[in-house]
């Protein structure tokens, strides 16, 4: 049965006449009568009967009007709960990340969200070799993305892009390397070096392309490794140098040091990607703000060192 027609029956039970129902609902009396006849057909039993110059509800009509009231109450409660959900940070928010992004941001973000008892952030990580982070947005509320520059394609596809941080990419060297005494390195400084590279088209690998463009010399890549921890171990053991992110590379007491690269654009942009409709949810907005706050705190902490 149609909820709106049930509501007309409830109004008739409370107001007594077709005319009064028409006045309150803003339609004509004939339209009210027509809708009640359709409801009667849906119910399969008479709902009204003549009473003097008007009509009255039958026993079935009164029972159905009571049911209509119960339905109206249930709808009002559902709408109130939905409004509360949409206006308050509550419920589950799903987030997926790449490894170093999660390492940098998730511990602090989860700590920040402890003050929101009705919100639960459900985190996961994805394969670091994934080429298109935006392809994950249908499956997660928030996707942490790693790219050398903010991709215009994301905007063109209607993805909400929230920049979080720019992270410098440094040259990682064995601590006894001939270049370790320098405070910064130019592309010319690293000509002829053996590299532990990232998979092709990773942000780190694109830095090597810039080195080639700046020097006109090819780079010799001995290994291509996606996991930064393995890269750090290989560099520390003297098997080559590498491009690694500044904020998550461990350089104290493990046999390697890092130096900034000057003369080229050596950084990656970390962003949150979302479907625009999900960005309207207060709970999602709160998590995004926590990500922004934590990203700033991480960057400020490292810049102060």
Q: What series of H and E elements makes up the topology?
A: HHHEEHEHEEHEEHEHEEEHH
> Gyration radius, to the nearest Å?
32 Å
Helix content: 40-55%
**What CATH architecture of the largest domain would you give?**
3-Layer(aba) Sandwich
Largest sheet: 7 strands, mixed
Low-confidence stretches: none
Total count of helical runs of at least 4 residues: 10
Strand segment count:
11
Q: How far apart are the first and last residues' alpha carbons, in Å?
A: 69 Å
Overall geometric form: rod-shaped
Q: Give the class-level CATH name of the largest domain.
A: Alpha Beta
CATH topology label of the largest domain: D-Maltodextrin-Binding Protein, domain 2
Number of domains: 2
Overall structural class, as computed from helix and strand content, comes to alpha/beta
Beta content = 15-25%
Mean pLDDT: 89
Summary, kept brief:
The protein is α/β, with parallel strands linked by helices and 305 residues long. Helices cover 44% and strands 23% of the residues. It folds into two domains: 85 residues, Orthogonal Bundle (Arc Repressor Mutant, subunit A), CATH 1.10.10.10; 214 residues, D-Maltodextrin-Binding Protein, domain 2.
């Amino acid at each position: 049965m149609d909820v709106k027609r049930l509501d007309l029956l409830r109004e008739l039970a409370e107001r007594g006449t077709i005319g009064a129902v028409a006045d309150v609902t803003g339609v004509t009396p004939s339209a009210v009568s027509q809708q009640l006849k359709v409801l009667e057909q849906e119910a399969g039993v008479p709902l009204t009967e003549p009473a003097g110059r008007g009509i009255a509800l039958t026993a079935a009509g009164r029972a159905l009007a009571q049911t209509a009231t119960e339905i109206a109450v249930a709808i009002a409660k559902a709408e109130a709960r939905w409004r509360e959900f949409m206006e308050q940070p509550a419920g589950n928010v799903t987030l997926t990340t790449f490894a170093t992004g999660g390492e940098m941001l998730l511990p602090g973000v989860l700590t920040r969200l402890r003050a929101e008892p009705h919100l639960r952030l459900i985190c996961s990580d994805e394969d670091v070799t994934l080429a298109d982070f935006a392809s994950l947005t249908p499956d997660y509320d928030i996707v942490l993305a790693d790219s050398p520059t903010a991709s215009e394609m994301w905007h063109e596809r209607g993805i909400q892009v929230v920049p979080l941080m720019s992270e410098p990419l440094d040259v990682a060297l064995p601590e006894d390397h001939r270049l370790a005494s320098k405070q910064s390195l130019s592309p010319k400084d690293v000509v002829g070096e053996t590299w532990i590279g990232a998979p092709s088209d990773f942000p780190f690998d694109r830095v090597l392309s810039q080195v080639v463009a700046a020097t006109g010399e090819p780079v010799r890549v001995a290994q291509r490794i996606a996991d930064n921890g393995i890269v750090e171990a290989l560099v520390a053991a003297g098997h080559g140098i590498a491009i690694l992110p500044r904020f998550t590379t461990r350089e104290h007491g493990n046999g390697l040091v890092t130096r900034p690269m000057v003369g080229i654009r050596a950084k990656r942009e970390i962003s949150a990607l979302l479907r625009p409709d999900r960005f309207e949810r207060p709970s999602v907005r709160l998590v995004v703000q926590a990500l922004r706050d934590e990203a700033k705190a991480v960057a400020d902490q490292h810049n102060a060192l």
